[in-house]
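Q: Sequence in, structure out?
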Amino acid sequence: MRPDAEVQRWTLQSLPRDVFSIQNAVILHGSSRWCYMIDPQGQANNFIRRSKGGGSPNLLVLKQTDDNFMRSIENAVQIGQPVLIEGVGETLDAALDPILLKQVRRTGGRNVVLLGDKEVTYNDAFRLYISTKLSNPTLTPELQVKVTVINFTVTPEGLEDQLLSDVVGAERAELQASSDRCIVSIAAQREEILALEERVLRMLNEATGDILDNVTLIEALQNSKVTSEKIAKELEIVEQTSAKIAVTRELYRPLAARGSLIYGVIADLANADSMYQYSLQFFKNLVVSVLKETQHKEDGASEEEDNQQTDADLNRPVDEAAVTERVSMLMREVMWTAYRVVCRGLFERHKILFSFLLAATLMKRDAIISEEEWDALLQGAAGRPPCDGFESEKCPDYMNKVMWGDFGMLCGMAPFAAVRESFLSKPEEWRRWFREVHGDSVMEQLPSGVQELSTWHQVLLFKAVRPELVHTSVVQVVRQHLGEQYTRTPLFSLADAFRDSTKLTPIIFILSPGTDPTNLFTSFAEELGFSERRYMLSLGQDQGSRAQKMIEDGKREGCWVYLQNCHVYVSWMPRMQQLVEAISPGDTHDDFRLWLTSSPSPAFPTAVLQAGLKVTREPPQGLRGKVRDTLSITTVEGAWDATVHSPEDGELEPAVKPLLPPEVTETARWRRLTLTLAIFTGVLMERRQYSPLGWNLQYEWGADDFAAGLRTLTTALSRCKPEDPIPWKELTFMLGTIDYGGRVTDMWDSRCLEVLTKLFFSSEADEARLSGSQTPNKVGYIPPLPEKCSYEDLLRLVDEVIPDAQPAPPEQFGLHGNANIALYRKRSTDLVASLVRISTGGGSGEDAGGGLVAQVARSLLDRVPERLPHIAVERSAGADAPLRTLLSHEADLYNTLIGEVSTSLQTLLRALKGEVVMTRQTEQTALRLRYGQVPDSWHQVGYLSLKPLASYFDDFLKRIDFIGSWCRQGPPSSFWLSGFFFPQVFVTAIIQSRSRALVVPIDDMEYRFRVLSPAESAAAQRQPNPDLVGAYVHGIFLEGCGWSADRGGLVESLPGELTVPLPTIHFEPVLIADNKADPSSYECPLYKVSSRAGALSTTGVSTNYIVTLRLPSLDGVEPDHWVRRGVAALCALDA
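A: Exactly. Output:
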């Protein structure tokens, strides 16, 4: 280590005082290679600038994107100038290699280095420093051998010390100033003592003869001793003063510690979404602003009086009780302000994540949450053994193996002893809770032993056995440990965000599907008088020069610059970063503001995000909010009120003729259909949250679509007289195919949109509205409008008839009530997945080499099956040739997967032992296994699957057994459709075999489907039927409805029943001409997995889609009902 004096000097040059940072500084100064510094908070940059910026020549700060970058490097190398290259990415310019590798050679009496094709004189005083703002860069091995990588990420201890200085500086400025003076004085005096000691040693070393006869040396030694004793006494006094100051400063440490924890959570949010970037300086400014805004109570002194304290005042007693009380109040204020400000830039789904992370961080600090319990939340069982009585073979029929494993692991922990006893002694009570208790009564009818658990331990239990309750229980934890206000979204105010901005601070709108803040921006600009002082541009190819000119003109003239869709123009983002960083106080008008809009994009510059003020813009929550928001567009409001007061002859007031064509004389009909269109738009948007039950893909419907639909509706009404019928056919086509359908790319979503459009816009529906025979809170319900209904009356009506429940009853959107269970499961799954991403730091290998990962890897490796036998494919055109070809191809694919699974596990185990290098891919495999997830390399060569690791591996072995049995024993009596890599190929092979047997074109054939009865299904599983045409297929599930085995048709789902297994199905290839389909049957799409979405194949359908089943619909229920329900068949479940 360096002497204390040098460490003191480093800390005065902005180096944090924690041990980790000091060690980094030692490496930085002592490394034989130039250093690549990971510096997301800019601490290393500040240290380099302070420590090297005062020398001669001065520090040169560059970016790789600078003009004349290499020319500046060449000049610095020649004159021995230190260089800091900041803001680099994961790669460096190859032209720097000679410098990084120090390829210096001696030529003609001088040291030279070859840069490009030019020999440059190399000055030994040259120093190079490289820094990146990336928190977890992926560096290639080639780069890592050229540089020394140093992680300067702020540590909790270092941040706590920095915040303590800021807090004391704001609260007791003179106290902090005295502390700083003491530190400087101590450092200077220690350096002086060190210099005296070195002087004495040098004099003794240079002395000749008898030193006792050397009068000059003796006098010098005596003077040094006197000076040293004097300095030591002064140093002792200063250190005593410093100790007294430290006692008072320590009173504020709880606030600094709380701030350190809060910033740690804020910094981790970037792992949930790359747009959530917040600089350390932002948080420091936030803390100081809270201190300045809160009322100053300590000692009854004002802030100005406190700042004017003298050194003598420092000796007066401190009212510790008053300070402690104020610190407690400030801790609450800092946390609330941080929550409110950060939430402004978070998507709705991440706000409860932020609250929970704050609560969990404090609970971990207070030992309410143990590391073992936190790992249980993120990892589940993950190879941990269950407790006695919960062995895998004892899994009850109402749990899957993953649930059972997680539950058994929890029951082995001390806090769950009562739950374990309850489960073993009262199994029927637990069975009933699983099978029969759903909806709002779940939390009210908890099994015995669960009620006694803390809210935190309930989170763990529900994550294991009732995942749909995790989100609700997390909210309870936040409410209990932080307060009710942390469970609510702070009110959004663009005015508040604008007040927090400056001319140096870009305002960044982070967009979500279906939102466009342009109208909000233009309205706000008009409100503040900037309607004529703004530049607006939608970014795209070749728009960079225009955008740059707008920014330069705006800076000079004090205008607002609004750049839309930054994510579209990725190649211009580096230039935009340069322009933002070039905004300086001296040459920028005070009124200038830069407004940016972007969807989440990893290409958006981190530096701009950290410098900017982030605001998310999302549609309002709930159907009511979306309908009100849709109706708020100016066209509707102005035209609506005008139509109320139209003359008796039906003509509109002249003032509103630009809003509605004069031909629209039946204003009551226009108002009724406008409200219908608004609710229709809200229903389409609300169904998105239920995906894939609602929609297979996410579509960005919003105000623009409503405006287009309103134009279509108005035009249609303008072309018919009051006595004429509404042209429903033309209207539904335009709305469902053009205005709203233009966004839809999935054919099954197109079908659903068509069904919903006809439900809202048809003569039958309109007559039901007029007669008042519709059922409230059901899809398609439109409240009747009073004869005289102003715009304000309309909004009040919307508030009265549309519930504000969150989430709303799914029946309002055409879905079954069980959809809310699926919704909450999805929210809970997403929440835990975000926690895992944050905990892994976006790929950090922390603790990935522990014994748990090795244990999981060994257990999986022991279960890896042998490779499947090779299947020879004969070149024949026989009827069985397609199936034999399919089998050969499937066996080859599974053998490739077996090889990858075995190789990756073996490589991981060797890497954990240190026998081979831990590559990035191996590190990712370790992380995946640690958190119970399937490694990416398995997915790349494997089949589509959404299962977690334990279920995936069981399913993998089952698939190998299915294909292996076919290879060894011949075709099965019934084919397990989930067992194929590509079920589509199997479906094609069966129909191709039949077409060959009949010698007809395959295009002339299609399937006839018959679902077998339970007895037929059991018989089909036992013995092959040689006379069977086609194939028996099993292993298919229905989602969104139930199945009546006795009656053989679709029925409504039972409460809590999200999926049901279908009996064996007979896939019978028949001639299209002979297949008379029942029009009352439901065309049910069959998918591989529940996500339903997939890449579009060459045929224009999703690669996840297999075939369309025709299933009977019972009790006269029309097929459109099941379309609205989102009913589909699946080959594999998610667990």
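The longest strand covers residues 1005-1011.
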